[in-house]
Specification:
Elements: H1 2-12, H2 16-56, E1 64-65, H3 67-75, E2 79-82, E3 92-94, E4 97-99, H4 120-129, E5 138-141, H5 150-160, E6 166-169, H6 172-179, E7 183-185, H7 209-213, E8 221-225, H8 229-233, E9 250-251, H9 267-276, E10 284-288, H10 294-304, E11 308-311, H11 315-319
Parallel strand pairs: 1-6, 2-4, 2-5, 5-6, 8-9, 8-10, 10-11
Antiparallel strand pairs: 3-7
Length: 333
């Protein structure tokens, strides 16, 4: 065939060394392409992972984020948790969000209802089931105008169980919608991917009943009652066995740090208000409420501001159930 004869002549006109050179160059070219494709894409993957890590690096010391910041984290793959109370009334939620309740992770029976489950294996399974991963940020939101600080409670819980990138959103659901996070019908949503988070408890932000009892007269400690004034004065609307407040406790209703739109007041305003109450960064702050929910929220705000702060999760449900001579409460006339 003419084409075949032409090809044979071309080969015959070149030495074996030249032919081997062509073959070597061909293999070299293929190798270069392979290396580029393999290591190039790997580098891109590493770059995106590094970018995600950089974006979350500061979250270790930041417990509260804006709606815009939360949207950016969600777009990068952060887990979104809807902790709004009365969930059955909410027909819509943010896209890819999972409904959660603080009760699912707490002891069920009084007087311990405010305390976290004690079995780490059970907690690990529950958290993995709602899509909690070790290396992904977790964004929690509620409706702050109707809630009880459940977002702060979930974030405090996750931090106490070893997750270093859990945050709640200033302004909650409304702030996220305003930032442009898509909304979906809850009936059309899918189940979250199973996470890989492993519980590793940290005691940095928690104090128990006995520890608090022995520190009631500690001058370096400030105890804050985050309930309504009527509760502080002695009313028991939520099942406490005794009324009143812990000796020396300062009253600061947690919602006094929110404006009429459910947004936190400015940092300067909050620090001034805290200082007026005697709550200063040079002291260790212990917060309590009825069951460690509102006080967990207040603890999260204080930690975000740089305070040394702890939540007493047992709170009044637990404290009031024990003998008054050992666990005193004071009432206002």
């Amino acid at each position: 065939m003419p084409g075949q004869e032409k090809g044979e002549k071309l080969l015959l006109n070149h030495s074996p060394i030249t032919i081997l050179g062509w073959i070597g160059l061909s293999f070299f070219g293929v190798g270069v392409i392979f290396v580029y494709l393999w290591f190039g894409t790997t580098a891109l993957d590493s770059s995106s992972q590094s970018q995600f890590s950089q974006a979350t690096l500061n979250l270790e010391h930041q417990w509260i984020v804006s709606g815009e910041h939360a949207k950016s984290l969600a777009e990068q793959g952060a887990t979104l948790l809807d902790a709004r109370s009365l969930q059955i009334l909410h027909l819509e939620r943010l896209q890819n969000a999972t409904f959660v309740s603080w009760q699912d992770f707490s002891l069920p029976n009084p007087p311990n209802r405010g305390k976290l489950l004690t079995n780490d294996r059970v907690l690990t399974q529950k958290l993995q089931a709602i899509g909690i991963f070790n290396d992904r940020p977790v964004i929690v939101y509620i409706d702050p105008k109707t809630g009880w600080g459940e977002d702060g409670r979930i974030v405090w819980m996750l931090r106490s169980l070893g997750h270093s990138q859990a945050v709640w959103v200033d302004g909650g659901y409304g702030a996220l919608v305003k930032a442009g996070v898509a909304v979906e019908n809850r009936l059309q949503s899918t189940q979250p991917s199973t996470g890989d988070f492993q519980v590793q408890r940290r005691q940095n932000w928690e104090i128990d009943r006995e520890q608090l009892k022995h520190r009631l007269n500690d001058n370096n400690l400030v105890i804050v009652d985050s309930r309504e004034l009527r509760e502080y004065q002695g009313e028991t609307p939520y099942g406490e066995q005794r009324g009143g407040h812990l000796p020396g406790a300062i009253h600061l209703y947690y919602q006094d740090l929110l404006d009429q739109n459910g947004m936190l007041f400015s940092r300067q305003f909050i620090l001034k208000k805290l200082a007026e109450k005697g709550i200063t960064p040079d002291k260790e702050i212990i917060s309590y409420c009825t069951g460690g929910i509102r006080s967990a929220w207040l603890t999260s705000v204080l930690v975000d501001l740089g305070f040394s702060a702890k939540n007493y999760p047992g709170s009044m449900w637990e404290w009031s159930a024990y003998p008054a001579e050992d666990y005193p409460l004071l009432k206002l006339d």
